[in-house]
Specification:
Elements: E1 2-5, H1 13-16, H2 60-73, E2 82-85, H3 98-109, E3 119-124, E4 127-134, E5 137-148, E6 151-161, H4 169-175, E7 193-197, E8 208-213, E9 216-217, E10 223-224, E11 232-237, E12 263-269, E13 272-276, E14 282-287, E15 290-295
Antiparallel strand pairs: 1-2, 2-6, 3-4, 4-5, 5-6, 7-8, 8-11, 9-10, 12-13, 13-14, 14-15
C-alpha cells in the first residue's frame, strides 16, 4: 500500500515508536446489510492519481491525493486521518469476489481499522465502495477492484479513514485509545492530542506519553507552537524513572509550579487538565493533587 498516514494522530512516527496500540477486529460480520444512507456517495470511484511530490510529505493533502476516490467518499468532521492507494500483491492474495477483496485489504495492508460493520455503498464499472458509517456518515471508505496491474483477483484500490475519534467508540476503547475531551465533553481528534501508557515490551508501563500537534488551537484565535521544526511534539511522564537516561530533554517533575505564561488548552483527560509552556518545551498536567511537568522526548528516541 502506498499509504500516507497524516502527520497528526497516533499513526505519526514518534508515538508509534514508543506506544503499542492493537488493531484487531470485533466479533461481528465484516460486511453487513445495513441501511442505505440518506445521501449515498454519488462521485467517481476512480480518479487519476496525482504526483505526490506536489505536496508536503506526510501532509493531509498528500494523503488525500493518494487515497483518490476513497477520500472523496468520506464524511469526516475533521481532516482525513489516513489513506492510500494499492500496491502489488501475488496470485492467491486477492479475493474471489468484492467481499473477499475487502478481506484482502485487511490482510495485505494491516490498516489498524475496524474489521466489522462495512456495507456496500456503490458498485460501478468493476469497482465496489465499502463504507463504515457512524451515525449515518462514512468514516472509513475502501474501494476494491478486480485484476488491477500486478494485483490479481479482487483487492483494495484506494482507501481512506477519518480520525480514530470519529470511529465507533466500542472499537476505539478496545484498541486502548485515550481520548482527551474539549470543554463540551467531545472527543478531541488524536491528530491534535493523543496519549497512552508506555510499551510493556520495554517495561515502560509506569510511564505515560503525550503527543501534540503543531499549532494546537486553544480558543480565542490563539495557537501554541511546539518550539521545533517537527509537526508533532512528544512529552513523557516518568514518575518511576523507567525511561532510559538521555531520553528526556529535562527531568520529569511531579510537583511543579505552573508558569504564569503557560497556556490552558482547555483539553481534559478525566481529572487531568492540560496546559503548555509558551515555548512548547513542557506540558503541564494539572490533577487534583497538583501540577506535573512533562518534558519533551528527544527526537528519535523510542521503544525498539
Amino acid at each position: 500500500m502506498r499509504g500516507v498516514r497524516t502527520a497528526g494522530g497516533l499513526g505519526s512516527a514518534a508515538l508509534v515508536a514508543v506506544l503499542a496500540v492493537g488493531c484487531g477486529g470485533g466479533d461481528g460480520g465484516l460486511v453487513v446489510e445495513g441501511e442505505a444512507p440518506a445521501a449515498p456517495y454519488a462521485g467517481p470511484l476512480w480518479v487519476e492519481p496525482q504526483d505526490p511530490s506536489a505536496f508536503e510529505e506526510d501532509s493531509v493533502e498528500a494523503a488525500e491525493a493518494d487515497a483518490g476516490a476513497a477520500a472523496l467518499a468520506l464524511e469526516c468532521d475533521g481532516a482525513l486521518y489516513q489513506g492510500g492507494g494499492a500496491g502489488a500483491w501475488s496470485e492467491g492474495d486477492g479475493g474471489d469476489d468484492p467481499e473477499g477483496g475487502l478481506r484482502a485489504y485487511f490482510d495485505i495492508d494491516q490498516p489498524g481499522l475496524p474489521e466489522e460493520g462495512y456495507r456496500v455503498e456503490r458498485e460501478d464499472d468493476g469497482r465496489v465502495l465499502f463504507s463504515l458509517d457512524v451515525d449515518g456518515e462514512t468514516k472509513v471508505a475502501v474501494i476494491v477492484a478486480e485484476d488491477g496491474p500486478d494485483r490479481p483477483g479482487w483487492g483494495p484500490e484506494t482507501s481512506a479513514a477519518c480520525d480514530p475519534a470519529e470511529l465507533p467508540e466500542d472499537w476505539a476503547d478496545e484498541q486502548g485509545y485515550e481520548f482527551w475531551t474539549d470543554a463540551d465533553g467531545g472527543r478531541v481528534p488524536v491528530s491534535e492530542i493523543s496519549s497512552s501508557e508506555g510499551s510493556a515490551h520495554c517495561d515502560w508501563q509506569d510511564a505515560d506519553f503525550l503527543e501534540i500537534g503543531r499549532g494546537l488551537e486553544i480558543g480565542r484565535g490563539l495557537e501554541i507552537e511546539i518550539g521545533s521544526d517537527a509537526d508533532r511534539a512528544l512529552y513523557a511522564r516518568d514518575p518511576e524513572g523507567v525511561l532510559p537516561g538521555g531520553m528526556l530533554t529535562a527531568p520529569y517533575d511531579g510537583d511543579a509550579e505552573l508558569p504564569a505564561d503557560a497556556r490552558d488548552t482547555g483539553r481534559h483527560l478525566g481529572d487531568r487538565r492540560l496546559s503548555l509552556a509558551a515555548d512548547g518545551a513542557t506540558a503541564y498536567v494539572r490533577t487534583p493533587e497538583g501540577v506535573e511537568a512533562w518534558p519533551l522526548v528527544v527526537p528519535g528516541m523510542g521503544c525498539a
